[in-house]
C-alpha cells in the first residue's frame, strides 16, 4: 500500500455513514465547578479529528468542536471548590455512609449508560478508535464501575466487625485521603481515566478532573450526570493547557493525591512541585517498553499471532503493547516472514469500517516521530522488512517491521507508542534478560516457549524486573481483578479493582479499652446508628 493508496482511505463527507457522522461540531462552553455548569466566555481550543476529508480543495482535517482553555486563576477557583467540598473530611461526601456513596455512583452509572452512543461516537472521532473498540471501551468502563461497587461492598462487609486484642476493642475501616487531581491518557480516555476517578470518588475523596488533550470532548456528555449525581464540589473539571494550569495546583499544596496515566517525566516534575511531597500520594501509570521473548522452542504461529495483537492493537497505542520483540536466531527469519505476511493482511481504514485494524493516529506529530525512529534505525543498520512499512500520509502510518534492531538505535529504549515493530535477534537467553534488567521500564513481559525449564528460569528472573509475566500470550491489563502496576519508571500504586480502592484510601482505627462503660458507649453508637464510620451495618 503506497502513499496513493493511503490517500484513498480518507473519505469525502458524503462517504461518511450518517449514523456515525457528527451532525455539527460540539462547541463546549461549559465546565463543571462547585455543583454548577459554569459558562465559559474566554479562549477555546479547537478539536481536530485524525480524519481528513477529501474536498475540492484537497484534504481537510475534520474539525469536531472546541472546549474551554481556562487559565491558572480559574483552575485555582476549581481547586478551592474541591477543598471546600472536602472540608478537612467534614464535607457531605467524605462523611457520607458507604451505602449512600454507592447509591450515588449507581445513579451516575445509569445516567452514563444513557449517553453511550454519544460517547462512543466521540471516541471514534477524537482519537481514531474503531467502532468496535470504542463500544468495548465504554462497556468495559461500565463493568469496571459495577465491579468496583462489588469490591467496595466486600471491603465494607469485612470491616463491619469489631476486633478485641490485648484488652482493646477496635474497628478498622477505610477513610478518604482528600482532594484528588485526576488526569487520564488519550489512548483510553474514558476507561483508564475512570479506573482512577471512580475508586477515588467512591471512597469519599473529591475530584479535580482534567481530561486528556486528545479525548476531551467525549467527557462533555457526562458532565450533567456528574452534576446531578453528586453533591456540589465533589466533581470539578479543569480545562486548559496542562503546563499552564497544573503547576499552580500542585504548588498550592492542597492536592492530596496525584493520579496520572502518562509520562514518567511529567509525573516526576509534578511531584517535585508539591511543597510537602511526603503528604502527597501518587497513583501513576507511566511508560512501558514491554518485551516479547520468542525462544527457539516457541510455537511460531502462536507467537506471531500474539505478537501481532500485542504490538498493533489500536495501532500499538497502548501502554501494555508489545514494543520490542526478542527472537532467537534460529527462528527469527521465519518469524519476520510470517509477521510481514500477517501485517500485509491488515485492513487500514476509517473507524466505522467493519474489520478495520489500523486507523488514523490522533497525535499530530506522531507520524513524523515514527518516521524519525525508522530513519535512525536504518542509519544504524536496520531495514524495514515488510512491504510499504512506514509509509505515511497525513495521520495514517502503515505498520513497519524493523530488523535487526540494536542498542545504538533510539527505538531500543524509546517507547514508540505507534505501529512500529522492532525485532532483536538473540543467540543466548542472557541477552533479553540483560535487556529487562537494564531497562528503565518494568511493566510486563511475554515469554513464548514450550520448554518448561526455560519458561521457569525466565519467569523467575522476570518477576523481579516486571510486574506481570505472560506465558505464551501478549501483554495486557485485564482482567481488572488482577493487579495492574509496574516496577521502575512504569508505575506507582496498583490499579486492580480492589487495590485501587485501597490506593485511594487509608486504614483508620477507632479503638477503646475493653471496659463496661466503653462497651456501653460503642453499643449505643452502633445500635442507634449514630455514626457513619463506626457501624456494623452490612451492605448486601
Would you spell out the secondary-structure blueprint of this structure?
Layout: H1 3-7, E1 26-27, E2 30-33, E3 36-39, E4 44-55, E5 58-68, H2 72-86, H3 92-95, H4 98-113, H5 116-127, H6 131-158, E6 163-165, E7 168-176, E8 179-183, H7 191-202, E9 206-210, H8 223-229, E10 235-237, H9 242-251, E11 257-261, H10 264-273, E12 281-285, E13 290-294, H11 300-312, E14 322-328, H12 329-343, H13 366-379, E15 383-384, E16 392-393, E17 396-397, E18 400-403, E19 420-426, H14 430-438, E20 441-442, E21 444-448, H15 452-462, E22 468-471, E23 487-488, E24 491-492, H16 497-503, E25 505-513, H17 516-527
Helix pairs in contact: 2-9, 4-6, 4-8, 5-6, 6-7, 7-16, 11-12
> In which order are the strands of the major sheet placed?
15-18-19-14-13-21-22
- Enumerate the spans where pLDDT stays under 50 for 5 or more consecutive residues: none
Structural class: alpha/beta
Shape: globular
Characterise the protein shown here.
This protein has 540 residues and is of the alpha/beta class. Strand 21, helix 15 (452-462) and strand 22 form a beta-alpha-beta unit. The strands form seven sheets. It has a seven-stranded mixed beta sheet, with helices on both faces. The protein is globular. It is built from 17 helices and 25 strands.
Entry summary:
The protein is α/β, with parallel strands linked by helices.
Q: Any key phrases for this structure?
A:
37% helix; 540 residues; Aldehyde Dehydrogenase, Chain A, domain 2; 2 domains; alpha/beta; Aldehyde Dehydrogenase, Chain A, domain 1; 25 strands; six-stranded mixed β-sheet
Amino acid at each position: 500500500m503506497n502513499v496513493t493508496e493511503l490517500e484513498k482511505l480518507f473519505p469525502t463527507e458524503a462517504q461518511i455513514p450518517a449514523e456515525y457522522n457528527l451532525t455539527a461540531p460540539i462547541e463546549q462552553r461549559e465546565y463543571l465547578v462547585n455543583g454548577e455548569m459554569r459558562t465559559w466566555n474566554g479562549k477555546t481550543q479547537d478539536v481536530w479529528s485524525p480524519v481528513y476529508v477529501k474536498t475540492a480543495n484537497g484534504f481537510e482535517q475534520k474539525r469536531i468542536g472546541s472546549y474551554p482553555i481556562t487559565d491558572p486563576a480559574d483552575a485555582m477557583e476549581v481547586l478551592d471548590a474541591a477543598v471546600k467540598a472536602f472540608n478537612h473530611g467534614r464535607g457531605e461526601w467524605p462523611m457520607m455512609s458507604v451505602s449512600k456513596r454507592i447509591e450515588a455512583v449507581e445513579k451516575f452509572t445509569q445516567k452514563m449508560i444513557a449517553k453511550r452512543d454519544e460517547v462512543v461516537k466521540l471516541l471514534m472521532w477524537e482519537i481514531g478508535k474503531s467502532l468496535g473498540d470504542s463500544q468495548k471501551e465504554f462497556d468495559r468502563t461500565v463493568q469496571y464501575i459495577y465491579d468496583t461497587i462489588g469490591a467496595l461492598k466486600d471491603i465494607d462487609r469485612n470491616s463491619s466487625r469489631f476486633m478485641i486484642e490485648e484488652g482493646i476493642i477496635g474497628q478498622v475501616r477505610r477513610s478518604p485521603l482528600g482532594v484528588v487531581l485526576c488526569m487520564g491518557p488519550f489512548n483510553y480516555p474514558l476507561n483508564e481515566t475512570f479506573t482512577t476517578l471512580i475508586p477515588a470518588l467512591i471512597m469519599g475523596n473529591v475530584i479535580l478532573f482534567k481530561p486528556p488533550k486528545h479525548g476531551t470532548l467525549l467527557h462533555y456528555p457526562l458532565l450533567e450526570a456528574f452534576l446531578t449525581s453528586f453533591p456540589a464540589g465533589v466533581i470539578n473539571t479543569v480545562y486548559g493547557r496542562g503546563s499552564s494550569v497544573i503547576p499552580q495546583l500542585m504548588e498550592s499544596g492542597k492536592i492530596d493525591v496525584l493520579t496520572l496515566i502518562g509520562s514518567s517525566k511529567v509525573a516526576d516534575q509534578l511531584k517535585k512541585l508539591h511543597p510537602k511531597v511526603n503528604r502527597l500520594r501518587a497513583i501513576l501509570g507511566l511508560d512501558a517498553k514491554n518485551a516479547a521473548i520468542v525462544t527457539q522452542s516457541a510455537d511460531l504461529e502462536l507467537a506471531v499471532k500474539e505478537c501481532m495483537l500485542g504490538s498493533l492493537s489500536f495501532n500499538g497505542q497502548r501502554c501494555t503493547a508489545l514494543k520490542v520483540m526478542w527472537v532467537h536466531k534460529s527462528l527469527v527469519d521465519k518469524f519476520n516472514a510470517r509477521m510481514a505476511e500477517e501485517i500485509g493482511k491488515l485492513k487500514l481504514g476509517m473507524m466505522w469500517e467493519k474489520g478495520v485494524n489500523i486507523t488514523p493516529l490522533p497525535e499530530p506529530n506522531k507520524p513524523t516521530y515514527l518516521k524519525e525512529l525508522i530513519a535512525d534505525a536504518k542509519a544504524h543498520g536496520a531495514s524495514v522488512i515488510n512491504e510499504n512499512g512506514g509509509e505515511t500520509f497525513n495521520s495514517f502510518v502503515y505498520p513497519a517491521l524493523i530488523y535487526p534492531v540494536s542498542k545504538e538505535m533510539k527505538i531500543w529504549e524509546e517507547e514508540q507508542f505507534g505501529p512500529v515493530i522492532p525485532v532483536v535477534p538473540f543467540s543466548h537467553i542472557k541477552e533479553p534478560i540483560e535487556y529487562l534488567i537494564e531497562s528503565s521500564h518494568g511493566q510486563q513481559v511475554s515469554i513464548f516457549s514450550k520448554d518448561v525449564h526455560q519458561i521457569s528460569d525466565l519467569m523467575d528472573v522476570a518477576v523481579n524486573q516486571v510486574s506481570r509475566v505472560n506465558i505464551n500470550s501478549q501483554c495486557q491489563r485485564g482482567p481488572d481483578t488482577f493487579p495492574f502496576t509496574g516496577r521502575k519508571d512504569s508505575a506507582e500504586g496498583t490499579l486492580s479493582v480492589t487495590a485501587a480502592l485501597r490506593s485511594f484510601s487509608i486504614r483508620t482505627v477507632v479503638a477503646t479499652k475493653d471496659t463496661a462503660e466503653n462497651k456501653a458507649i460503642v453499643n449505643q453508637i452502633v445500635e442507634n446508628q449514630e455514626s457513619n464510620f463506626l457501624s456494623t451495618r452490612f451492605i448486601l
